[in-house]
Amino acid sequence: MGKSQSKSSGGGSTFVSGLRSRTKSGKKESSSESTGFPSDIFSENLSNDRAKKIKIDPSQIDFGFQRQFHDEYEVTKLLGKGAFASAYQVSPRETSRFYGRYDLAVKVISKTSLKTVQDVRWLKQEIDIMKLVGGSINMVHVYDCYESKNHVYILMELCSGGNLFEKISKGDPYTEKMAAVLMGDILRVAEQCHSRGIIHRDIKPENFLFGNKLMGAPLKMTDFGLADYCKPTTKLMEISGTPYYIAPEVIRQNYSLKADVWSCGVVLYVLLTGKTPFHREDDRKHSYKVVFRRILEDTVDFTRDPWPNISEDAKDLCRKLLCKNPAKRVTAVEALQHPWIKQGMVHSKETEGSSRNPKIDAIVQRLQLFGTYSKFKQVVLYRIAKELATPEMEEVKAQWDKMNFGNVAEMGTIRLLDGLELEGFTVGEAEGSDLLKAVDVMGTGKMTFEDYAAAILDWREITKDKRYYHLCRQVFEDFDREKCGFITKRGLKEVLPGPLSDKDAKKMISEADTKGSGKIDFKDFVFFIQEKLGSADMFDKRLSSRYRNSFPKRTNSFLRKLNLLPKDAAPDSSGDSKRSISPMPPSGEDFNRSLRRDEEIEHFKEF
């Protein structure tokens, strides 16, 4: 059912991810079910049902991760402890590539907690998914993975501002305007997952962390332990999530991506009222199945206090998110277009009463979008961008020149942050470093104009250019090192920057190989470039009008030295509150923890 146990609602952890353990199986399995250990436990040919029945000894577990964690990092502070996982703040040693960073944490999972082959596969999938969505600065970032004989170490971004549940529980005064801003953040990261074919399955306030303790700190999604791959047409059957936030169709074991949208609706209900829609004061006395029955049968109440004091727009969005029929429920993208969310969106000061180019407002969004592409796709777009000579390219060059006040050939993190600040954006120093690494196509450690152009160009528009097809052919032929009419693993390894293993090359080939031939023809190549380009709108703009005071002041800014720093502006505080949020009432622990994937839940068919 749920894969792992979440940190409890009362946990005061500042760790970047939920303290959720790999779990013990809900059923005892006979020794006969443990026979037939596969040679490749990550093979797609091994079904999940079969993998759940194959027991595994810790000594058999090898993810292929690096082994020198304690050589590179010193554990400095316990952040939280669960049954099978612990979280620590760490300090990088001089041998670490992150030496000097203070904002790192590690999630340590005991290999003894991985009882079956499927437990191992789930952990690997969780790590893969976190890396897949890591190009966004509103997702908790995974930097490296290590392992030892007995443990797995996931090195992650440290978010020290606590989680959203804690803020609500303390009764912090969120106005409707601020609730709309936070809900926009939550819906955007949900859509980022959905656009990549990922369902989170555990969207709740506990799984949204504030980057630091400053007022207005950015909100980041975490805890992908229950996440799974899911196409829009896929139907999942595994009951997984946290009882108060589970959608009706999940209980009925027939659901898809819109189950996350329901959970977003519950979060909105909590932001506006301080409690979940199906919470009752005596829940501690009941099983979570009672909550499931309410979710299936009861109507969401929009009449009792404080709903009379809440705006009609807020009620309307909440109703649309909490529509019990998933076919009629809005998508995350549609919800982001709702008037209540749009009125909460922060705009740059320059756009007020002016004709600022909307493409400039999207710079940080497009950098994030480009950072989510595979290295293969990035290199292809980089090479096409180098040959383009269009009016849009001239516009991008003008933007680069304006940001590049020192006229340097390559921007490091500090120059990039300064340039963004000149254009009206505020990005945290660690975030800027992560963003630069994500878009550094050739692996130089800095951003060139070619890197910038490949990320900033509107590729949906570029595909309409008459030279585009010719440039695609030119890049394809360069990748076709064997001159056989196909891109092969050998071609990728010769052209892509840095060392590339056979396994990684094979994975990249499979991204574009629609025929399963192990190589890419030109038709597949063109389709691969244009497929899933995505929309930059689902990413945070990081406008200074919202985030100027949300990060520690940088002391290494070239702008300060040259007196070029933009004038300080107070955070956007427009929009009066209709009400302040009441404190979250205490509720049963069973209803605030995630159900484990293999937790035995009897008689579900009654629902």
From TrEMBL:
SUPFAM superfamilies: EF-hand, Protein kinase-like (PK-like)
Comp. bias regions, Basic and acidic residues: 590-607
GO molecular function: ATP binding; calcium ion binding; protein serine/threonine kinase activity
Positions of transmembrane segments: none
Region annotated Disordered, chain positions: 1-41, 566-607
Keywords: ATP-binding, Kinase, Nucleotide-binding, Serine/threonine-protein kinase, Transferase
Residues that coordinate or bind ATP: K107
All copies of domain Protein kinase, residue ranges: 73-341
Keyword Transmembrane carried by entry: no
Family annotation (Pfam families): EF-hand_8, Pkinase
Protein name: Calcium-dependent protein kinase
Organism per entry: Chloropicon roscoffensis
